[in-house]
Amino acid sequence: MKDNNHVAITNLSKTYKKQNSDVLALNGITLNVSRNEFLCIVGASGCGKSTLLRILSGLDKEYNGSVSVGGTKISGPGLERGIVFQEHRLLPWLTVRDNIEFALQTGTQAEKANLIAGHLKLVGLAGFEKAYPNQLSGGMAQRVAIARALVNRPDILLLDEPFGALDALTRLKLQQQILAIWEKEKTTMIMVTHDIEEAVFLGDRVVVMSERPGTIKKEFEVDLLRPRNRSGVAFQQVRKEIYREFYADLM
Ligand SMILES: Nc1ncnc2c1ncn2[C@@H]1O[C@H](COP(=O)(O)OP(=O)(O)OP(=O)(O)O)[C@@H](O)[C@H]1O
Ligand SMILES: [Mg+2]
């Protein structure tokens, strides 16, 4: 049975308390994500996208409203949710292998070695166990971060502009790779991006957020078969519609 409310966010608001003034970052977000769905979130800088992902990851527990996964309210970070940030956040003094092992919670040495090798293979980095982060390109480091986020076999992968800092060609390659991982692992994906084309290429659904305080402005179902043709008429049509919505505030 399709689980339409695998992630259920209801009337979520978030205020950052400051000494002199409070910042309302999110205002009344209601959003459900189905199991296995690939959801993309786009929105202007500062509209609360990272705030939303941090709340979903359990790193930020101070909010109003309700956020649950599989019917259970989120009360902190959990192994069923992995997160990838815009910067890779690898520890520079640890090898690739040790960076991933650092995140791994259970298993014997042999099991861990197997899991690490398997996940490096999944992101196309077999054999890079002994490299240090400064010996990797930006795209490779980000793929290690993805392997690290997946190694505990999460149900949900939260991706906060994971390819934002990468060059266009690397970004295209990693988009293909994240789709392949999604198809293989059946992970529910929630990905923030500022790149509308990326959102249309990847997403089953694209959610457009308003400027701060962030609300859900509009949702678009992307009903295009995969692999998607970026230059196709249908693709461009969806891209244009989202683009129009995205920039409506600015025009
Ligand atoms: N720790 C914090 N303390 C106070 N205000 C914060 C904090 N983190 C974020 N904010 C504010 O909350 C709002 C939303 O920030 P957030 O980082 O979620 O935006 P974003 O959509 O991820 O932006 P970007 O696209 O630039 O990454 C911003 O106005 C920001 O200044
Ligand atoms: Mg952000």
UniProtKB/TrEMBL annotation:
Transmembrane regions: none
Example of a GO MF term: ATP binding
Keywords of the record: ATP-binding, Nucleotide-binding, Transport
Superkingdom assignment: Bacteria
Annotated ranges, domain ABC transporter: 7-236
InterPro entries noted in UniProt: AAA+_ATPase (IPR003593), ABC_transporter-like_ATP-bd (IPR003439), ABC_transporter-like_CS (IPR017871), ABC_transporter_ATP-bind (IPR050166), P-loop_NTPase (IPR027417)
Keyword ATP-binding carried by entry: yes
Cross-referenced CDD domains: ABC_NrtD_SsuB_transporters
Protein name per its UniProtKB record: Alkanesulfonates ABC transporter ATP-binding protein / Sulfonate ABC transporter, ATP-binding subunit SsuB
Protein source organism: Sporomusa ovata
